[in-house]
Design goal:
The complex is a heterodimer of chains A (402) and B (437). Chain A is an alpha/beta fold. Chain A is 14% helix and 31% strand. Chain A folds into 3 domains: 2-177, Spore Coat Polysaccharide Biosynthesis Protein SpsA, Chain A; 215-362, 3 Solenoid (UDP N-Acetylglucosamine Acyltransferase, domain 1), CATH 2.160.10; 371-402, no CATH class. In chain A, strands 1, 6, 7, 9, 10, 11 and 12 form a 7-stranded mixed beta sheet that branches. In chain A, strands 18-21-24-27-30-34-37 form a 7-stranded parallel beta sheet. By secondary structure, chain B is an alpha/beta fold. In chain B, the strands form 11 sheets. Chain B has an 8-stranded parallel beta sheet. In chain B, strand 34 (343-346) and strand 35 form a beta hairpin. The chains are: A alpha/beta (402), B alpha/beta (437). Strand 38 of chain A pairs parallel with strand 42 of chain B, so a sheet runs across the interface.
Chain lengths: 402, 437
């Protein structure tokens, strides 16, 4: 049976990439979905709306599915003629992945544009028209991803937040519509578990999969992770629930949790990343980076602070110039391809939910750093940085300057 | 014999709590007094006014006194042994007593040839009546009572501090279990938190003699005489704790239901119940109240934290943190003065605290968010909601700026460096004296 993947032309801001090129796990969305369809017994082909023949599966390239959900969908579809539509029961998984996505839903399920086509549809010139026809004439098949969650306590300074913890869904079937960079951040936090369930050895307690020629320091901690070939992990690093691509180098004291790192990335010492996604080839450092996504060949230093929450409300992002509430209390920012981010000074930081376009280079405000040290300072005279120059502090400021 | 604790109107700034609710050794002061009296075999009764005391002989103290189990027991027993009546508690002036002495109003009696004696407000009396006000009590009872000195044994651990100038280069932490202190200021709570390591272990050892003995034996058996190996086996935790195998616990007391994450380090600390210590957090020499959440990579040293707080800044040293506080992302405290002592507010006036290493006190329910910097010795009032300045937050990122050219953040908006220089410096960014308050 064939599975037709239709190119919708959707792009992910700020990268400007086609959605099939987005980073999922340690490879791209297109390859991962094609692989999932193949494992489920379908032949994945590029869809042409005028050439659909039953029996087949039709889905857009923005849809992420894993092989288990396709198998279960195929099994659950009634054996009669008709058109059937994939739907998921509402629960922790839909809460995790569905904000900001434009999906049809009713009271207790969310419906995706993934159709099992068993009757010949009319010929349409484009995917949009075909999709509209299929969505009107299809019957939903609701699958239940389960309601098991993992509680992750977080620190959110919002006094009217009733759930100050992240509820990470534990499930074996996942379907998601990827149209925003936040979806990539969310789906990549589930990817390590999903990949381990499909490829890992269930008999072992610590089910990490480690590639060939990896150089892991004995003091490093690797737990429930997937490492590619040639990965170097420095002393006292810790990699928990993460996916590392080929050739990734983690310097000493680097901590990763629920991250997906593309091939060829490097990190500087003493970094801490939780829930982040990195495209290949970047150089990364930060004292604490949460729920963010960084593009290809970018350079982030530890001088830059990314805030992950807004005052007293859920984080809002900008879509087409409008402010949209994500419903999430903790979300970082997106950094585009080829960016070089220095520092914003001692007090500056980037607000939550922002996008930095490709190629931007952010440097320090010249007034923030000490540019002009004094020539002959007296030994016990205290100096201050005013506009880049160090000048002596006025005397008799008892007790207020340390 | 009864022990009477009479009510005084002492409140701890900035919390505004009455002193009997002050958090000492992971319990309120009232509960600590109860524990000390139970250990000494005395029956505790609280009265509003000292003139209501009926049954003599008895032990009398105001409600702002913290006294450890051993100190009260020794005082009582030595008075009984020597058949003394009308005595007052005294301890010689050593590192432990001198540690809490600043800003207390305990009396220091100078003696020639021997160590000075510190006299505390704990009396054993055999007859009344007792006047109503504390100052009057002292005057009246001083004429009647002699000071009975109890023996104190202590160890000091010396920790080197980065200070310049003529102040002390190393900081002595005393370890003892004979402690008495008048609590009147939040710094006293901090000093008691440092002393509570010694007190707690001794009290624990005395109440669970067999278990502690077994632990010590096992520690010696597996670790030999190596100090750190022994200390790393001397931990006590309650039921239902979930400790990751890569976490390192050394000489700590944990409550029930504590979750310790991967790579965490907990040394010389007292942790309350249901505390969550996330991955790679490091807790050294601190007292953490029940139900707190310490976020990843958090570093807390020599501090005291009330229950139900969420702590998330990179490093906290020598601070007192109130209930239900959110310390969020890159909040920093200045905790040392290079020259001179840190000044704190006491009775409305800035007073020297005799220390050059002291951070601030944060009131209940305060929320301090990203990149807030607080000077040393300050007290943050309850319910303060402090955020960063709008011009420091990069909120506006235009999409049409040229790539690969330097961009800077000016008043919350991203502009090119050339444009910034063309329009002149955008206001005071380096900091003026008002900015560092």
């Amino acid at each position: 049976m064939r599975a037709h993947r239709f190119i919708t032309g959707a792009r992910i801001e700020p990268f400007g990439d086609q959605v099939s090129e987005s980073q999922i796990g340690d490879s791209t969305l297109g390859l991962v979905v094609t692989d999932a369809l193949t494992r489920a017994g379908f032949e994945a082909v590029m869809g042409k709306a005028s050439r659909i023949e039953p029996q087949c599966l039709a889905l857009p390239d923005t849809l992420f599915v894993n092989s288990r959900i396709i198998e279960e969908f195929t099994r659950s579809c009634p054996k009669t003629k008709g058109i059937f539509r994939l739907a998921l029961r509402k629960g922790p998984l839909t809460k995790w992945l569905c904000p900001l996505a434009d999906l049809d839903s009713d009271d207790d399920s969310v419906m995706f544009h993934c159709y099992m086509v068993r009757t010949q549809p009319p010929r349409f010139p484009s995917w949009e028209k075909l999709r509209d026809f299929l969505s009107e004439s299809s019957q939903a098949v609701v699958l239940d991803p389960g309601s098991s969650v993992e509680h992750v306590p977080v620190a959110v300074p919002a006094r009217n937040c009733s759930t100050p913890e992240i509820l990470l869904p534990r499930t074996e079937i996942v379907a998601a519509d990827i149209s925003h960079w936040a979806h990539l951040v969310w789906i990549n936090q589930l990817m390590p578990r999903l990949m381990l369930k499909e490829h890992g050895d269930k008999k072992k307690v610590d089910t990490s999969i480690i590639g060939e020629k990896c150089d892991i320091h004995p003091t490093a901690l690797v737990q429930n992770s997937i490492l590619g070939d040639g990965v170097k992990i420095g002393p006292f690093a810790s990699v928990i629930d993460s996916v590392l691509g080929d050739g990734v180098e983690l310097n000493e004291n680097c901590r990763l949790k629920r991250c997906c790192v593309g091939h060829g990335c490097r990190t500087l010492p003493d970094s801490y990343f939780i829930g982040c996604t990195f495209y290949p080839g970047s150089t990364l450092a930060n004292f604490m980076l949460r729920e963010s996504i960084v593009g290809r060949q970018s350079f982030i230093t530890s001088g830059l602070v990314f805030s992950t929450s807004q005052l007293d409300e859920a984080v809002c992002v900008q879509i087409n110039g409008q402010r949209v509430n994500t419903g999430r209390w903790m979300l970082g920012s997106a950094v585009g391809h080829g960016c070089t981010l220095g520092t914003l000074g001692q007090r500056g930081f980037i607000a939550a939910g922002k996008e930095i376009p490709n190629g931007y280079m952010i440097v320090m405000n010249p007034a923030d750093g000490l540019q002009r040290p004094p020539k002959n300072p007296r030994p016990v005279q205290a100096h201050m940085n005013v506009g880049g120059t160090a000048i002596p502090v006025a005397a008799a400021n008892n007790g207020s300057i340390s | 014999m009864k022990a009477y604790v009479f009510h005084t109107d002492t409140f701890i700034e900035p919390f505004g709590d009455h002193v009997s609710q002050a958090w000492v050794m992971n319990q309120s002061l009232a509960e600590c007094q109860q524990r000390a009296c139970d250990a000494a075999g005395l029956e505790l009764e609280r009265v509003d006014d000292p003139s209501q005391i009926q049954s003599f002989p008895c032990i009398v103290m105001p409600d702002y006194v913290y006294i450890s189990e051993k100190a009260l027991t020794d005082f009582f027993n030595s008075a009984q042994k020597k058949s003394l009546r009308n005595v007052r508690l005294g301890i010689r002036l050593c590192v432990s007593t001198g540690y809490c002495l600043t800003l207390q109003d305990a009396e220091v009696i100078e003696r020639e040839g021997k160590d000075d004696l510190v006299a505390y407000d704990v009396w054993l009396l055999d007859s009344g009546p007792i006047p109503s006000e504390t100052l009057a009590i002292r005057k009246v009872l001083d004429q009647r009572c002699k000071v009975l000195q109890i023996h104190i044994r202590e160890l000091t651990v010396s920790v080197r501090q980065p200070t310049i100038g003529h102040t002390v280069q190393s900081y002595d932490f005393p370890i003892t279990s004979t402690v008495c202190c008048h609590i009147g200021h939040w710094t006293h709570l901090l000093w008691l938190a440092h002393l509570s390591f010694g007190i707690s272990w001794m009290e624990l050892a005395r109440s669970h003699k067999l278990k502690t003995g077994m632990k010590l034996l096992k520690a010696f058996a597996t670790g030999g005489m190596k100090k750190w190996k022994i200390l790393s086996r001397l931990n006590h935790h309650g039921s239902g704790c979930d400790i990751h195998p890569s976490a390192y616990l050394e000489a700590s007391i944990l409550g029930d239901g504590v979750k310790v994450g991967a790579g965490a380090v907990v040394r010389n600390s007292i942790i309350g119940s249901n505390v969550t210590i996330s991955d790679h957090a490091k807790v050294v020499n601190s007292v953490i109240g029940d139900g707190c959440l310490l976020t990843e990579n958090y570093f807390i040293l020599h501090s005291l934290c009330y229950p139900d707080s969420v702590l998330g800044n990179p490093k906290t040293q020598m601070a007192v943190i109130g209930r239900d506080v959110y310390l969020y992302g890159w909040t920093s405290f200045i905790d040392a003065k290079f020259s001179g002592d840190v000044k704190v507010m006491h009775k409305g006036k800035p007073t020297s605290s005799n220390r050059s290493f002291l951070a601030c006190c944060i009131g209940h329910r305060a929320v301090l968010s990203a990149r807030v910097l607080i000077a040393a010795g300050r007290q943050i009032p309850n319910d303060l909601y402090m955020v960063s300045r709008p011009e420091d937050i990069l909120n506006d990122i235009p999409k049409d700026l040229p790539v690969n050219t330097p961009l800077i953040c000016d008043k919350g908006k991203l502009i090119t460096l050339k444009e910034f220089e063309r329009h002149g410096r955008g206001g005071d960014r380096g900091g003026t004296p008002q900015d560092t308050e």
